[in-house]
Specification:
This protein is α/β, with parallel strands linked by helices. The chain has helices spanning about 20-30, 50-65, 80-90, 105-110, 110-130, 175-190, 215-225, 245-255, 285-300, 330-335, 345-360; strands spanning about 1-5, 10-15, 35-40, 70-75, 95-100, 145-150, 195-200, 205, 230, 235-240, 240, 255, 260, 270, 270-275, 285, 310-315.
């Protein structure tokens, strides 16, 4: 593994107003300064833009506290090749973290176009820019880290999910685009010797998260007195992973690039890796809802006498969903000495406290 010191390096983070991206930028400013960070986000309206704006304002505040570092934000689209090429030409990033993507399984069923634009064309533009970063003998990109997803495991029956498992049966277009990213990265790693690492994230949650995720959507509905639907009659398990754990994993992986080396045929062995980042302990969705409601009462988002039973409805499985996600994280532990450890209660407590402040309840 090639060790990379992030200090004084230029890091390009796409999706930097997103949930994981914004938290990563904050963590890098706090722990890796002096560092030069370039962020890109299209600020689309897939969910409430005011949350993205809040995240960006938190980054601005943090950047002001670290004047030894630089932070520059571009509003733009991954699918805009000219813009991506311009950013690479101007900033010459040493490390690229591609978190920009159209997320969500259900939305991909009704709006496939957004996924092809962002996740396929957008990622291709990043790969091409990485490839050309080595032109004219330049050092170029030392490590490309990109977001994949636990969705790639589809309906695999074997758990926990291992990166050694075959993942040829996606059950949503979103999953198919993420698996495609891994395949494209592998080809580019082989052809152009680009060190790349894909990270399969498992159900990320926390403060200022995505409103389309269950815990956030449930909270919004309960507050309005609406009924929440629990899919597969509550027989779903998810490997919920707190955002700080995800960010710590990403930060560590950024600093260890797959090594460039040649095989017996003299040709390069692709410097390519894929890891799971998950909590390695799936929680039943009913237990999850139970902890969520306790924490919402504790944070005074909901009244102490709230009648949850009358606001719960057990319904069948949704198209594109899977009954369980469960990460095998042994490779991450072995190579980076890291395993997510935040308990669901601690994570949901932080979310409930943030929610109360953000929505001024």
């Amino acid at each position: 593994m090639q060790k990379i010191d992030l200090k004084n390096k230029t890091v390009f983070v796409t999706g930097s107003a997103g949930f994981i991206g914004s938290n990563l930028v904050l963590e890098l400013l706090r722990t890796q300064s002096p560092i030069n960070i370039v962020g890109l986000d299209n600020m689309n309206h897939y969910y409430d833009v005011s949350i993205k704006e809040w995240r960006l304002s938190e980054i601005e505040k943090c950047a002001a506290e670290h004047p030894e570092s630089t932070y520059q934000f571009y509003k733009g689209d991954l699918a805009d090749k000219a813009m991506i090429d311009q950013i690479f030409a101007k900033h010459k990033p040493a490390v690229v973290v591609n978190l920009g993507a159209q997320a969500g399984v259900r939305y991909s069923i009704t709006n496939p176009d957004a996924y092809i634009q962002s996740n396929m064309i957008g990622f291709y533009n990043i790969l091409e820019a990485c490839r050309h970063s080595y032109d004219n003998g330049e050092t170029g990109v030392e490590h490309l880290v990109y977001a994949s997803s636990s969705s790639v495991y589809g309906t695999n029956k074997k758990v926990p999910y291992s990166t050694d498992d075959k993942v040829d049966n996606p059950v949503s277009l979103y999953a198919a685009t993420k698996k495609s990213n891994e395949l494209m990265a592998h080809a580019y790693s082989k052809l152009y010797n680009i060190p790349s690492t894909g990270l399969r994230f498992f159900t990320v949650y926390g403060p200022a998260g995505r409103p389309d995720m269950a815990y956030f959507g449930f909270t919004n509905k309960l507050l309005k007195g609406q009924t929440i639907q629990i899919f597969n009659y509550g027989n779903c398990k998810r490997d919920f992973t707190y955002v700080d754990d995800i960010v710590e994993g990403v930060k560590r992986v950024m600093q260890g690039a797959p090594e460039k080396k040649n095989g017996e045929d003299g040709l390069s062995i692709p410097p390519y890796a894929v890891y799971n980042i998950g909590n390695n302990s799936p929680e039943n969705i009913l237990d999850f809802v139970d902890i969520l409601q306790q924490e919402l009462i504790r944070a005074e988002v909901l009244p102490a006498d709230y009648d949850f039973e009358s606001h719960k409805e057990l319904v069948p499985m949704q198209p594109g969903d899977v009954p369980i996600t469960y990460a095998d994280t042994t490779a991450l532990e072995r190579d980076f000495g890291f395993k997510p450890s935040t308990s669901l209660r601690d994570g949901l407590r932080k979310f409930a406290e943030w929610y109360k402040v953000f929505y001024k309840i």
